[in-house]
Amino acid sequence: MQTDIDPRSLIGRKAFDRDGAKIGTVDEVYLDDATGEPEWAAVRTGFFGRDAFVPLEPSRVEDEGLRVPYERALIKEAPGFGVGRHLSPAQELQLYHHYGLRLPGSTGSGDGEPSGEGTGSAPGAGSGAGPGSPG
Question: What pTM was estimated for this model as a whole?
Answer without folding.
Answer: 0.76
